[in-house]
Write a structure and sequence with these properties.
Blueprint (H helix, E strand, L loop, with lengths): L7 H7 L3 E6 L5 H12 L2 E3 L5 H5 L12 H4 L3 H5 L3 H26 L5 E4 L4 H7 L5 E5 L2 H6 L7 H11 L4 H15 L2 H8 L4 E4 L6 H11 L4
Parallel strand pairs: 1-3, 1-4, 2-3, 4-5
Helix pairs in contact: 6-10
């Protein structure tokens, strides 16, 4: 399935049992998705839940962004890309994986409600879902940058180790932080904020339970 073959009206009907959460980094998306699944019994689809399955069948010539790790020359290359290259890789991967995610969600939601931490772009979500089935969680850019390496996340700790192995680790680290800034730029933030979907904004004083209750009310899952 590719984006040119999608019948959005038919897909929207088939995805009536799916609730989508998207947004910026460190806005609490993974936590909220897990809470909804655990408390309300929706089928759980966490971040990148179908990535390994997709990577097993796609080819670099068709999905260069998804296949980047198959084609990159070294981890030095990965951590040394420009912010523009890094941003294009992230956004390109989101576009490439969307048809596969839609296909999987149709199958998963046929007989059950599903909550998914998704990367499907908002312009596609408008075509395949309803207002009360999409919630966008947002956080300040500073939070995504400052907290990136502050969590006990094996993947992020691995990246930090690769940065330390480069010729100029301090310069590489500052460049990588600019990459994270670019991915979580005001431009991306405003795209979510002005998308027409309901946004839930996290700040230093945010209460997780309050946001959870607001989101399930928005989803009409009460």
């Amino acid at each position: 399935m590719n984006s040119n073959e999608l019948n959005y009206d038919e897909i929207k009907c088939k995805l009536k049992n799916v609730y989508f959460i998207n947004g910026t980094a460190y806005a609490g998306k993974s936590t909220i998705v897990k809470m909804i699944s655990d408390r309300l019994g929706l089928y759980f689809c966490g971040e990148n839940y179908n990535l390994d399955k997709v990577l097993a069948k796609v080819k670099p010539e068709d999905c260069p962004n998804l296949c980047y790790f198959k084609t990159m020359k070294s981890w030095d290359e990965f951590v040394s890309r420009t912010p523009e290259e890094y941003d294009a890789w992230i956004t390109g991967g989101e576009v490439e994986i969307t048809p596969f995610e839609i296909e999987d969600l149709i199958e998963l939601s046929e007989s059950q409600k599903v909550i998914v931490d998704t990367n499907i772009p908002v312009e596609i979500l408008h075509k395949i879902s309803d207002y009360n089935h999409v919630a966008l969680l947002l956080s300040p850019q500073s939070m995504s940058v400052n907290e990136f390496f502050n969590r006990n996340d094996p993947d992020k700790l691995f990246i930090l180790e690769q940065i330390k192995k480069t010729k100029n680790p301090e310069i590489t680290l500052e460049n990588y932080k600019r990459c994270i800034e670019k991915v979580n730029s005001l431009e991306h933030y405003n795209k979510f904020l002005n998308s027409g979907f309901q946004c839930f904004i996290r700040d230093e004083n945010s209460n997780l339970e309050d946001r959870y209750n607001q989101i399930i009310e928005h989803f009409k899952l009460l």
